[in-house]
Amino acid sequence: MSMLEKRIAKKVDYPDVVGVWDRSVRATHHFLSQEDKEFYQNLIPNFFDAVELMLWYENDNLIGFSGVDGYELVMLFLDPKFIGNHYGTNIITWLKSNKGINKIDVNEQNEKALQFYLKQGFEIDSRSQADGFDKPYPILHLKRKGD
């Protein structure tokens, strides 16, 4: 596999980022209602300025994006055609080493993402019954083992 490249996203990139988010959510978040998908899709660009939003590329292909706030990974979404090719592992490894991330929230119903993060050295710390918008999607709060 060739080297992943990254860069900080700019406002002009936001439509591409939302596109990755949409394709990723359609492939992985089957538990969301269509109405809630649209609710989140309209909201997500508002959060881009609140995080360090990085775009991850390989050979000019946008693989996905990550958003970090302090030591928390707030968002990590990959274009579905790149899921399962170790890109997520490479991104998490880089973020742990270079940004010191030690916290992640994950939808409890997104079992593949949960298993992925557990394999990356995180463990469940606590659980919220609803998400941050009081929607009925339980959130698992993960922390890095040993922290």
Automatic annotation (TrEMBL):
Name the source's superkingdom.
Bacteria
Molecular-function GO term, any one: acyltransferase activity, transferring groups other than amino-acyl groups
Signal peptide positions are none
Annotated N-acetyltransferase domain residues: 4-147
Q: Which Pfam families match?
A: Acetyltransf_7 (PF13508)
> Record keywords: Plastid included?
no
Organism lineage: Bacteria, Bacillati, Bacillota, Bacilli, Lactobacillales
Which keywords does this chain's UniProt record carry? Acyltransferase, Transferase
List the InterPro entries hit by this protein, alphabetically. Acyl_CoA_acyltransferase, GNAT_dom
What is the name listed in the Swiss-Prot or TrEMBL entry for this protein? GNAT family N-acetyltransferase
